[in-house]
Amino acid sequence: MSRPAPCPIYTLRGAGAPLNTLHFRCPGGDTPLLFSGSAKGAIHIWNLNSRRAEMVVEGHCGNSVIWVSTLRSGDSLMSQGRDMQVCLWDLKEGRSEAVDSVWTGSVGFCQCSLLETSSSNYLLAFAGSQTEEIKIIEMPSKSPVSTLIPDTKLGMVMCIKLWKSDSGLGPLLFAGYEDGSLLLWDVTQRSELSRVKAHPEPIMCLTFDPRHLRGVSGSCEKKLSSWMLDNQNNIQLQDCVMLVNPGVSQLRIRDDSRLLASAGWDHRVRVFGWKKLQPLAVLQYHTDMVLSLAFSDYQDPRQRLLAAGSKDQRISLWSIYNERADTG
Hints:
InterPro entries: WD40/YVTN_repeat-like_dom_sf, WD40_repeat_dom_sf, WD40_rpt. This is Guanine nucleotide-binding protein subunit beta-like protein 1. WD repeats lie at residues 283-320. The protein is mainly β. The chain has no helices and 28 strands. It starts with 9 loop residues before the first strand and ends in a 10-residue tail after the last strand.
């Protein structure tokens, strides 16, 4: 029998604008935090013990914040705004100082992607000033690594994902484009490895599981497209997952590779078993489009959370499927 629909364990209010992006930082022994970026340019840092914002960072001149992330060191925050800037913030000892920035030149909504390559260096990928351009730089030096432009017109870059293969290849990047194409790039060689037409409409979001070489993407359609990589790094389209209503803003896979969550334009979060893409739950709380999702990085699996941010200016937090049940 199916379970009763769960309710949020709590909600966070006070952002005062739609929530475009969410990111957890829950290191053992330290205060668990949730970072949110809003359409009014504010980054809220939420203390999950007190369930209140302990700091608000205003850093993009009132322009919408579309991506936030932290580095493993824990004291550095990165944010991307519609002011065409990526900012690096120092959070040590309660500070909120912008210590560096990168100009992207992109006016689109494509979120950056980050890949840490050592304790002090990382790659940053972002959409460039040209329509189909993706730039990758090494940080903190800002040294150019690669510029990726397809050899045919695919429209705007919509979403990107940097990752590192265990096969010995250098960093790789998935990119979803306006015409529905999904490409895999070799960053170091600046070469296209594979291309498929994953959707008839623009790819709004994608996520990838490097351990199982499987990914999934969404668009404005009533379906998700799942795909995998073969041993020649060719993208192979697999089954589609049909949705009740059209439109997906974001997709997230939990770190244990057991759950997939989708943020719906229909105000709902849908949860699937990642192994077989079996529908497990529909989370209903929000009164407008769900724009962002994040799974927590708690080391204790029983504490794991799913956060959802909405156009209704609220964040809901859910505790789901943390026991060893079959998630399909």
